[in-house]
Each structure stands twice: as structure tokens, then as C-alpha cells.
Design goal:
Largest sheet: 5 strands, mixed
Number of domains: 2
Number of helices: 6
Helix content: 25-40%
CATH topology of the largest domain: Lambda Exonuclease, Chain A
Structural class: alpha+beta
Shape: flat
Distance between the termini: 79 Å
Number of strands: 13
CATH class of the largest domain: Alpha Beta
């Protein structure tokens, strides 16, 4: 549960958006700025109250993932870890930054993570990521760094590390170590100063420069000296361009129609609980098969599926 105060302090989960300009969910630095401005005058936006599946999922799964990780860690390394949930935010009031800790942990013994050994106190950040790429997101690392400097200030500690535990789409837990990093701390303080300057003076973050590859080709942006202009009498080129555009439109429509019809036939085969249909001179085949689960090879776990639908037309017998 979020414990920082929007409109008065910049949260640890927001800081990377300010530093990077945009987070992995598409939220921009100006979106965060607008949210804080609204909160400061007691106004909420419809977007602030919209249902968010990732946030809701994380809220309900957090406690379960913590217990799962504690049990799994003890089973593998026989290390006892105490995980406490604080009922208050940790913060640096002068810098106007804060953090809500998922857990403050104490390792009684030595815990090995990615070849490094951790002991004593640190922070634990829980994530659920169903598009996980087997590495922590940069915004998570900034988040943990802000958590560390805020907890050190509030609780007068000297924590130097945190662990990110991510439950992924394959039903596995990934643990990533994060060390307190001077460069990240400098980025955090710089971003906070910039953010609150925009907040106080009513200015906004500049729009990011458009990448060259993102720009749409437009003849109006070209150098006029590099453009050849034809008069209307060049009918051959006009016909070629016109035919090309018509063909592209027909291709898109044809692909859409083909996909729709194949989905209908696939559904029909499923409803009839068969592997194929023979009607008139047409054969429709969608053979059932069994595949081993990719993420659990060697465990003997399989699932039923169908091969891609195949449609053929019976050839005429020309010898008749």
C-alpha cells in the first residue's frame, strides 16, 4: 500500500520516470508532474482512479510472494530471513523524496545471490512481471536506490543493498541484487530538483526529441532541390502508383477476410470435436496433437493443442 504523499514528495516508483522521461508502462515525466499538481490542490483525474491490472495484481500477490521467497530461500540455502513491513513511509524531507518499502529484511547468516553474499539488513522489493526478460528493469534499480537512501535517513541506518524478487510469467521467482550506487543517487537528487522546480514555477518537462526512425516520411520536409516534379502528362507513373496503392488496400482486406474465415472453420472443427472436415471437393484439416510445456521440459507435463488449420481443394481426375 502506497504511503508516500502525492503532491508533497516524489515516490521511489516515480523517480525513474523523471530520470528516463518515460517508464515501461508509457507514463511520462509530465504525467507524473500533472498528477502531483492535481493532488496539491485536491483534484483527481479520471486516469488517477482507473483500474490498473498490474497495480492490483501486485497489491494482492505481494504478501504471498514474500512468503514464497522466504520459504524457497530457506529450503535452498537454509538461511533464516526476517521480513518486516513498515506502516509508514521513509523519506528525505529536504529533498522532497520518499519511498514505501515492501519489506525491510534481516538475513541471519549468509545469503548467496548471483555469486555475491549478503548478510544483515537490506530492503526487499517485490515485482510481478508477466513479460519478464530475465533481468531487472532499470526503473526498479533506481527505485531500490531511492528506498535505501530514504530508509537510511529516516531510520538512521547505513544500508547498502537491496534485493528485487520478481514473479515471472513462467511461475518462477527471480532474485536480483542491487547495490547502493553513487551515480544513481546523483541522478535521483538531480531529477528531484528538476521536478520540484517545474512544480513550483508552473513549467513543464521538454518533449523528447523525435527519433529519426520514428519520423514519418513527408515530402514537405525534403530539400526542394532534391525533388523532381512531373507534369500531369506522365500517365505511366500515375497508373503505377495508383495500381500499387489499390493492390495494397486489396491485400490488407484479403488478409483480414482470410483470417476471419480460418477462425470460423477452426471454431467449427472444435465444436464438432474432430480432426478434419470433408465437404464436396474441399478438405479442412486441423489435427490434434500433444506438446510438452516449453518451460517444463523433462518434467513429463504436456498439453493438448491443434496444428495450424490446412485447407485444400480436391484435384480433378483428368484421366476420366
Amino acid at each position: 500500500m502506497k504511503k508516500t504523499i502525492t503532491g508533497k514528495e516524489l515516490g521511489a516508483s516515480e523517480i525513474a520516470t523523471i530520470i528516463l522521461g518515460k517508464n515501461s508502462y508509457g507514463q511520462t515525466d509530465n504525467d507524473v508532474l500533472d498528477k502531483h499538481k492535481r493532488a496539491s490542490i485536491g483534484v483527481s483525474h479520471i486516469k488517477d482512479n482507473l483500474y490498473s491490472r498490474p497495480l492490483t495484481r501486485g497489491k494482492h500477490l505481494e504478501a504471498g510472494i514474500v512468503n514464497w521467497w522466504l520459504e524457497e530461500t530457506f529450503a535452498k540455502q537454509k538461511v533464516k530471513i526476517v521480513a518486516d513491513e513498515l506502516d509508514f513511509a521513509v523519506r528525505m524531507e529536504r529533498e522532497k523524496i520518499g519511498a514505501t518499502l515492501d519489506r525491510l529484511i534481516k538475513i541471519n547468516g549468509e545469503l548467496e545471490v548471483d555469486g555475491e553474499v549478503f548478510t544483515g539488513e537490506g530492503v526487499l522489493e517485490i515485482k510481478t512481471d508477466y513479460y519478464h526478460q530475465n533481468k531487472p528493469k532499470i526503473e526498479w534499480i533506481y527505485q531500490v536506490n531511492q528506498q535505501l537512501i530514504c530508509v537510511n535517513k529516516t531510520l538512521d541506518k547505513k544500508l547498502t543493498w537491496g534485493l528485487i524478487v520478481c514473479a515471472c510469467q513462467k511461475g518462477k521467482l527471480h532474485t536480483y541484487p542491487v547495490k547502493l550506487n553513487k551515480k544513481y543517487i546523483k541522478d535521483i537528487f538531480g531529477a528531484a530538483i528538476t521536478f520540484w522546480n517545474h512544480f513550483d514555477y508552473g513549467t513543464r518537462f521538454p518533449k523528447p526529441k523525435e527519433k529519426q526512425e520514428d519520423k514519418k516520411l513527408d515530402i514537405r520536409t525534403l530539400n526542394p532541390e532534391h525533388i523532381v516534379t512531373f507534369n500531369n502528362e506522365n500517365y505511366l507513373l500515375v497508373d503505377i502508383i495508383d495500381n500499387y496503392l489499390n493492390a495494397k488496400r486489396e491485400e490488407r482486406q484479403s488478409k483480414k477476410t482470410t483470417t476471419t474465415h480460418k477462425e470460423i472453420l477452426d471454431f467449427a472443427i472444435d465444436q464438432m470435436n474432430c480432426d478434419g472436415i470433408q465437404i464436396d471437393k474441399f478438405h479442412v484439416v486441423a489435427e490434434r496433437t500433444t506438446k510438452e510445456r516449453t518451460e517444463q521440459r523433462g518434467t513429463g507435463q504436456f498439453y493438448d493443442t491443434r496444428k495450424p488449420i490446412k485447407i485444400t481443394e480436391e484435384e480433378e481426375d483428368l484421366n476420366v
